[in-house]
Amino acid sequence: MRIAFLLLVLALASCTALRILPSERIGPIAFATTAPDTALRFFHATPVNSPDLEVLRDRYDLDSIAATGTDELGRILAILAWTRSRWEHDGTNQPSVSNTLTILHEAEQGAQFRCVEYGIVLKSALAAIGQPARTLGLKTRDVERTRIAAGHVCTEVWSRDLQKWIVVDGQFGVMPTALGRPLNAVELQAALVDGVPVRCINALGPVPAEVQERYLRFIGKYLYFFDTRFDQREWPMDSVWRYNGELSLMLVPLNAKPPERFQRRSPLNYLHPTHSLTDFYRAP
Fold first, then answer.
1. What percent of the chain is predicted at pLDDT more than 70?
2. What's the pLDDT at 103?
3. How far is the CA of 220 from the CAs of 22, 49, 69, 77, 103, in angstroms?
4. Domain residues of the chain, as ranges?
5. Cα torsion 58, 59, 64, 68: sign
6. Torsion over CA of 229, 119, 51 and 43, rounded to 10 degrees?
7. Phi, psi at residue 4, to the nearest 5°?
8. How far are the Cα atoms of 28, 29, 34, 117, 250 from residue 255, in angstroms, in the given order?
């Protein structure tokens, strides 16, 4: 009996130390606002430096879709809705090649894809209509210990009107706002922790209450580590710009250690860590 009890205690301790699913707990996090690191460079896709964007814009008539919005925010929301409508989410399926035109072509053949592919397509569609955008990786506080579901991918788009980055989630088709103002991913995390009412909108206006509740309950746990590629152009991977061999910039909370592994298995050796909001949210 005593041995069985000890085994149960050890099993429970193991489940706590090495979780299967991420913790739902969120709390305050802080970052530095130091001067920008001038060695870091960022490249955003445009129809000039990424010719596929012109093909994308013409093939799917993105200018007409964007024109259904009456202002910059409306154009972004129109492209968000279009992206969400391309396929239904599948958390495991991947395209044969990870570029926008391939993803869309295979979706038209009936394939369904992950949040990753929504993030890629939304970034490219926004860039094709002239809105600088970037794919944004989100990771939980316990990303190293969790076995599954430790990350999510969405998109941030630069608003020229507001002079700030805005987070948009292609998988869910929503844009989070607070006090009538669109949020970036770090602002969204702070709003959730501080109890500021967050309203999710789409091209039709506020989303239904149950959709908003489900999304906010889902997204909070992922808002701890934030990463984005230095080079958002759709070049072959051996051609994109890297910093000291590292592909992406990861924003790490103060007093937190940059994670070294994703879900216990995959090395995160392609990420350059920073605590600086100034670097991560630099204007394009």
1. 93
2. 98
3. 11, 35, 29, 22, 27
4. 43-280
5. negative
6. -20
7. -60, -40
8. 12, 9, 15, 32, 14
The arithmetic mean of pLDDT across residues 133-161, rounded, is 97
Decide: 172 and 215 in contact? Cβ < 8 Å.
Answer: yes
pLDDT tens digits along 37-83: 999 999 999 999 999 999 999 999 999 999 999 999 999 999 999 99
**Close Cβ partners of 199 (under 8 Å, ≥ 6 residues apart):** 176, 177, 178, 206, 212
Check if the beta carbon of residue 283 is closer than 8 Å to that of residue 259: no
Statement: the pTM of the whole predicted model exceeds 0.85: yes
The pLDDT value recorded for residue 18 is: 55
**pLDDT at site 237:** 72
Question: What span, in angstroms and rounded, lies between the C-alpha atoms of 43 and 240?
Answer: 9
For the residues of the chain, what is the DSSP string, one character each? Answer: -HHHHHHHHHHHHHHHHS-SS----------B-PPP-TT---B---TTT-THHHHHHHHTTHHHHHTTSSSHHHHHHHHHHHHHTT----SS---SS-SHHHHHHHHHTT----HHHHHHHHHHHHHHTT--EEEEEEE-TTTTT-SS--EEEEEEEEETTTTEEEEEBTTTTBEEEETTEE--HHHHHHHHHHT--EEEEETTEEPPHHHHHHHHHHHGGGBSEEEEESB-S---TTTS--BTTB-EEEE--TT-PPP-EETTTEE-TTEEEE-BHHHHT---
- Give the sign of the dihedral formed by CA 88, CA 271, CA 215, CA 73: negative
Largest CA distance in the chain: 72
Other CB atoms within 10 A of residue 276 CB: 20
